[in-house]
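Dear colleagues,

As part of the handover before I leave the project, I'm documenting each prediction I ran so the next person doesn't have to rerun anything. This entry is a single chain, and its sequence is reproduced below.
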Amino acid sequence: MDLSAKEHTLTIDLETALTGLIKLIKALSFYPPGHPALAKAAEETATAFQPLLERHDTCPYHVTQKGFSLDAIPLAPNNKYLASLALKLLERRVRHLLFLPELTDHELLAFAEELTKSAAQLLAEGGLPKRLADRQIRSIWINETDLQVIQNNLREFENGQPKNLAGETGQKPRWETAETSVVVTRMQDFLEELKEPLNDHEYAQLLQKIRHIAREFLRQTGLNGCLALLGLLETHRQESQRSSSQRDAATAAIGSLLTAEIRDLLVDCVAEKTLKASQQRALSRLLVGLGLKIATPLLKRMNAERNTITRRHYTAILAAMGECIFELLQTEIANKTWYVVRNAVTVLGESQLESALPLLNKTITHPEVRVRRVLIRALGAIGSSSVIPLLLRLSQDKNAELHQPAIMALGALKNPKALPPLVSILKEFDFGGKKTELKTATIQALAATKSPQAIIPLLKFARRRNVFKRKHIEGLRAEAIMALGQLGNDQLLPLLTQIPNAHKGPVGKALKQATAQLQKHHHVS
């Protein structure tokens, strides 16, 4: 059988097996525990797995956001049900999935039961690997790709010394509390000692001791351990008063400890809703400090995140990294997927760095209006004089939906250089009233500038005579009068009384409102 035929058969058998698992998970949502239908469903799932287990070599399947793959070759990439299962597994921090030929229906049922739990509940219980280990599942391995390690662990289990049943490489079981206490206590002592003044030789020796137990410490303590150990090392790395030798040693230690597994943990925890505020702050500081070392997985996770609030957490962390990730964002901006570009634009805007403008300028003609809308917010966040020409271009965008937000962003800059272009828009000839919404936004933007320099052009517009009594002009005059109420002072009151045709209609109502506002703010009776 040639390679393509093998891949085709493997794809079919994997689809059959995992579809059976999906059906079993669904059955668990219909039937209560112990129902006879569940036993039958588990048997059917085991039958569905037989072709996969019997025809193909035992190997770890890589779980991705798009589904499953083997040796970087996607398997059943168009199967939306498998893609949905893969996302469920990723949420539960499953990166690799391996089934042994001895797989039983009991083990499949136990695995499915664990997958019906929420990701938060599973993490609170120690994670999926620990749960499978607790339930003595020997034929399903999570995040273990080395068959030799698996065989060694199985032999230890058979000898009555169960270690690492969940399949985490080189890790001892979480339930060894005595050893856990020793490792954690030693690390706490080391970290306290590391905070004391040390010469370069003492510092290097202590780091060597820390690195010797760090992997076990981080496995046992999870996020809190990462924040304590990596957070301290990151602080030392950035301390200018510390010797270059110690800063370099701290940098090297971070590099050795920041494994793919630890990166995944840190990136996943950004979305963890159960974290305390102090943990969130410490995690954000650590991730920002790590910068390029962790920016790529953060970007990937941000782009995959569907929850808007959670995505904002990733955005804020990436934005705080500043210019060091601009090269990565340049690649993101060239992406053909619109929301990837949108996210990159958001990060650049939140950085509030003027050096982001050359990259943002590349998106001003992006075909997706949602990208250009976010671009307006990004330019407003940067807020320098350099954004004014870009916002003016967007105020004339082919999509009229962007005109008002672009003009309002100009006003929100509170920059004197934004006044002349806003006044020019207000003065544009518009006999038929087609630009009424645009001019209304311009008046509101002039008010938003809070600049006394906006008073004269607004007053001129408010005093404009409406010979033909066009309704749209009266509405705009009323808007200008209300804007004057926000900007003016008591010296403006006599001038407001001279506004023509101000006895009734929208202009009259606006005049009363503006007069009352000026009197209130300037204590005029």
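Residues 161-179 have pLDDT under 50 and may be disordered. The radius of gyration is 32 Å.

All the best with the project,
I.
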